[in-house]
């Protein structure tokens, strides 16, 4: 019997079909979401091993949210589900994550003396920076989108106002 791979046939889709496309991994958004996921997972592991285990829920939730958005953007769910305002949801997630990571990192570094808590705090400060960069970029995208939308809306408002004025006469 011959090996099917030696015939030049493409291998059947398996786990490779779950991986995101390379162009998304090379994009700035893909790299930020991947960094957020990895840092959140590392922080989660550090909090589990530390005396500050009560802080482990925030990194777990941020890890799951970043992972969901990573695969949502990679599989272009944001283009399929137009009812969700994806940039706004991503902006709010990044802002809250940066604030929460900053607060629990300060608490972990100042209140607990074990090494795992200190490591979680240091990684938390790094995650704060990554989330802050992400929300800054997302904020700039949101502002440009809103400026583009607001330049279209006054024309639409004028025609609506003119229609309502003619209806009232």
UniProtKB/TrEMBL annotation:
It holds the Pfam family MARVEL. It comes from the Eukaryota. Residues 24-143 form the MARVEL domain. Keywords: Membrane, Transmembrane, Transmembrane helix. The chain crosses the membrane at residues 32-50, 56-74, 86-108, 120-139. The keyword Transmembrane helix applies. The keyword Hydrolase does not apply. It is found in: Membrane. InterPro entries: Marvel (IPR008253), MARVEL-CKLF_proteins (IPR050578). Residues 148-169 are annotated as: Disordered. One of its GO terms (cellular component) is membrane. Its main location: membrane. It is a multi-pass membrane protein. PANTHER family: CKLF-LIKE MARVEL TRANSMEMBRANE DOMAIN-CONTAINING PROTEIN 3, MARVEL-CONTAINING POTENTIAL LIPID RAFT-ASSOCIATED PROTEIN. This is CKLF3 protein. It comes from Rhabdornis inornatus. The gene is Cmtm3.
């Amino acid at each position: 019997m011959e090996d099917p791979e030696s015939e030049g046939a493409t291998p059947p889709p398996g786990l490779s079909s779950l991986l995101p496309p390379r162009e998304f991994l090379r994009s700035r958004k893909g790299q930020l979401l991947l960094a957020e996921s990895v840092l959140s997972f590392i922080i989660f592991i550090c909090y589990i091993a530390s005396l500050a285990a009560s802080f482990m829920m925030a990194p777990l939730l941020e890890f799951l949210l970043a992972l969901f958005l990573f695969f949502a953007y990679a599989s272009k769910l944001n283009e399929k589900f137009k009812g969700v305002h994806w940039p706004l949801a991503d902006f709010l997630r990044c802002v809250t994550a940066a604030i929460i990571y900053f607060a629990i990192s300060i608490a972990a570094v100042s209140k607990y003396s074990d090494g795992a808590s200190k490591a979680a705090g240091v990684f938390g400060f790094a995650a704060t920076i990554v989330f802050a960069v992400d929300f800054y970029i997302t904020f700039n995208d949101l502002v440009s989108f809103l400026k583009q939308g607001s330049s279209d809306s006054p024309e639409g408002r004028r025609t609506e106002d003119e229609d309502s004025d003619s209806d009232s006469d």
